[in-house]
Design goal:
The protein has eleven helices and two strands, in the order ββααααααααααα. By secondary structure, it is mainly alpha-helical. The protein has a two-stranded antiparallel ribbon with strand order 1-2. The radius of gyration is 39 Å and the shape is elongated. The relative contact order is 0.08.
Length: 345
């Protein structure tokens, strides 16, 4: 391209992503594009899981004994004694009170969202790991399967614990009014409480995974985690009291005890990893004045090859001093005076 007869560089924009560096480094804009792509994939996974949950809400699978999603999610509320809640219809029925025309649709959408978040745990955890791995070495990237599997398992365990604890938490919360009140929960209030509990417990149970990752990359050691144990347990207890909705003692105690146990598990795993690293470094490195020990090497025998075995070294033999060889000795050259040089001028 020429302007006024002079060549100028082309202004065409190259399409496509530029190749990444071998060490995983990239400019800021590439980081933002990568973050946008990872968020899109994670959101798409949650959306697909939500669609599955929306279909599952009113249809169970009796062949394998799987109830519908509505029965599973309303079970904690139905476990509250009938004297503490309003019963509509027959004495055995358990239904939430819909106070608006969109309450039923909102109930199904929130239920589907809960299912979508739980079902898509491997997807959005892998996207999180894939966004972090460009800054890690190739050896550390191989932990992706372990990270995703452990993270998904911890999140599901936390969600299941929240589901179990909600029953007792609702019983305590709905029983504070005594004989003066009786509960008739709406879908909005109940499922807001249920979603908050499941997400809080599920995310909080990722604590050991985070601490072990920090230990693996060398940012924190097991000894430091052990030294911070008292402060960490106090902070986790305060955290449980602040994030739990309703502030009932049963739910707060369950979350605080669980986080304390998970922290202690992280401490022990970090110490085990540190000991293994120190052992490997001790076997790999020798000091400058330390020789490699030969006592552990095998010695030769009658039938073994001398190419593969170390043979013992014989004792040193004395060497005689060299003898002087007689011969004619030439006389040293005669010294000359400055007069013999003549007139150099």
């Amino acid at each position: 391209m020429r302007v006024f007869g002079r060549p100028v560089p082309s202004l065409r924009v190259r399409r496509g992503r530029p190749p990444k560096a071998s060490d995983g480094t990239m400019p800021l804009m590439e980081h933002l594009h990568e973050l946008r792509r990872r968020l899109f994939v994670a959101t798409l996974g949650i959306a697909l899981g939500t669609v599955v949950g929306f279909i599952w809400f009113g249809h169970g699978i009796p062949a394998i004994g799987l109830p519908s999603l509505s029965e599973i999610l309303t079970a904690p509320y139905c476990a509250v004694p009938a004297s503490e809640r309003v019963t509509f219809g027959d004495a055995e029925s358990c239904k939430l009170l819909a106070t608006g025309p969109f309450s039923a649709l909102e109930l199904q959408l929130k239920s589907a969202l809960i299912a979508g978040v739980v079902l898509s745990v491997p997807v959005w955890l892998y996207q999180l790991w894939a966004f972090v791995t460009p800054a890690l070495y190739s050896k550390e990237r191989r932990y992706a399967v372990i990270f995703v599997s452990a993270g998904a398992a911890l999140f599901v365990v936390g969600a299941v614990l929240a589901y179990v604890v909600i029953r007792e938490g609702l019983t305590v919360l709905l029983g504070f009014g005594g004989d003066a009140t009786i509960a008739a929960l709406s879908p909005d209030s109940y499922f807001s409480f249920l979603i908050a509990m499941i997400i809080i417990f599920g995310v909080s149970f990722e604590l050991p995974l985070l601490l072990i990752m920090l230990n693996r990359i060398g940012l924190v050691s097991g000894a430091k985690l052990a030294a911070w144990r008292r402060y960490a347990i106090f902070g986790l207890t305060v955290f449980a009291g602040l994030v739990v909705p309703g502030n009932d003692p049963i739910t707060m105690l369950a979350l605080a005890v669980s986080l304390a146990l998970l922290y202690e598990l992280s401490v022990q795993l970090a110490k085990l990893h540190d000991r293994r690293v120190r052992r490997q470094e001790a076997q790999r490195e020798l000091s400058d004045d330390e020789a490699t020990p030969l006592a552990d090497l095998p010695t030769g025998d009658a039938g073994a090859s001398t190419d593969t075995l170390v043979q013992p070294v014989a004792a040193a033999m004395p060497v005689a001093a060299p003898q002087a060889v007689p011969g004619p000795v030439s006389p040293p050259p005669a010294r000359r005076s400055y007069d013999d040089l003549g007139d150099v001028t």
